[in-house]
């Protein structure tokens, strides 16, 4: 079903590392044209060079998903470079875990802004295009923590529950103009995500667990490719995956 990926124009946020980067490499290798957004422009440029050297098509745009105009500029750059947009993969996210009584309010705001509002801005930037062309695919990243809530994860879990909720609302609203919506909810994946945990003692403990049980970032790429490669009348509404040993 790789043919359903070949030629597709795919926007990927959070493409500078982890699952976004792995998905960009994989989709480009399968013939998609990828438009990559994140704040670390140097990482994106290096990734674009790698993809092009391997025969793929990619562009990079420095993007802060907490700014609607940045996400709109990323989408516009994809339209200008490739002639349209078929898929948006709203993947950018942060997980600075901490107990609420540590009052890390800046980190709460960051998670709400990136994980939740960033996803909404990705939707806002493509929805008029998808509605006009009567096709498109929105893929949003939630988490196992979008299905349950854990201590030190109250805010993170809340943002990931919100991603699932807004995705399901979106799916019901856009089905009549043939737009697919997919939620992908990973368990532990070996990426840089845990590097932002500033809570004393917690970061090392979480990093230790994830480094032992986490699955590779390419697992997400496989899931995204599966969802995109279905026939247009098949909406993979949700995928939940985790390391076999994760509770
Ligand atoms: P990484 O930390 O490797 O990647 C996160 C990406 O998000 C980076 O490319 C980062 O780029 C980007 N990002 C962060 N803030 C912004 C911003 N303001 N604007 C644009 N991009 C931003 O982690 P993962 O690959 O693991 O994370 C990908 C997604 O998967 C996240 O939504 C995460 O919550 C989710 N997830 C991860 C799990 C895991 O175990 N790893 C489990 C469940 C869900 P830059 O810093 O350059 O802007």
- Classified in CATH, the superfamily is NAD(P)-binding Rossmann-like Domain
- SSE order in H/E notation? EHEHEHEHEHEHHE
Radius of gyration using CA atoms only:
17 Å
The largest sheet has its strands arranged as 3-2-1-4-5-6-7
In this entry the ligands are: NADPH dihydro-nicotinamide-adenine-dinucleotide phosphate
- CATH names the topology as Rossmann fold
Strand content: 15-25%
Question: Can you offer a commentary on this structure?
Answer:
The protein is an alpha/beta fold and 247 residues long. The chain has a single domain (2-241), classed as NAD(P)-binding Rossmann-like Domain (Rossmann fold), CATH 3.40.50. Helix content is 46%, strand content 16%. The chain is built from 7 helices and 7 strands. The chain has a 7-stranded parallel sheet, sandwiched between helices. Helix 1 (18-29) packs across helix 7, helix 3 (68-82) packs parallel to helix 4 and helix 4 (105-133) packs parallel to helix 5 (154-174). 43% of the residues are buried. The structure holds NADPH dihydro-nicotinamide-adenine-dinucleotide phosphate. Residues 13-20, 38-40, 63-66, 91-95, 114, 141, 143, 186, 188-189, 191-193, 217 line the site of NADPH dihydro-nicotinamide-adenine-dinucleotide phosphate.
